[in-house]
Fold:
Amino acid sequence: MKRNIAFILLLTQMYFLMGMGRVPLVSDQKCALCGREVHHDMFANLTFKNGESEPACCLQCAITYEKQTGKKAEYITVTDYYSHETVDSQKAFFVIRSNISPCCNKEILRIPNGNALMLKYDRCLPSIIAFENKDNATKFMTEHGGTLETIQDIRSSD
Structure:
């Protein structure tokens, strides 16, 4: 009897601990530009006139892909950072240069002599985080900094 109760308590604790951390939902798709796994909370998708599409790990990679390939997407969808819903980029609000960069490489690089180097460049920087509504974008900026922009602002910034 005591063993059964201990076993049930152990299982309950395991389920509780498993629910504490948020594991990002990763698809089997790779970003068309940087080759990283596509996470559902930052996903962007470029759709071209011919109906073909290319996945991107984030809007920054989607925009860079357009610039580097010369292929202008007719339609780009992005993922709302809070709800994880797909949003038309023309209707979305974007926070640029916040202190959150969920798509970026966070590893410390080691050179042969053993010294550690901080990564200062990443294709996904500066981060561009999408929101379906302006209130959520503004709330996010209050907590994490950054500037509010539209897709037109982002595309014309170069």
Notes: Residues 25-155 form one domain. Residues 42 and 58 are 5 Å apart (CA to CA). Confidence is low (pLDDT under 50) at residues 15-26.
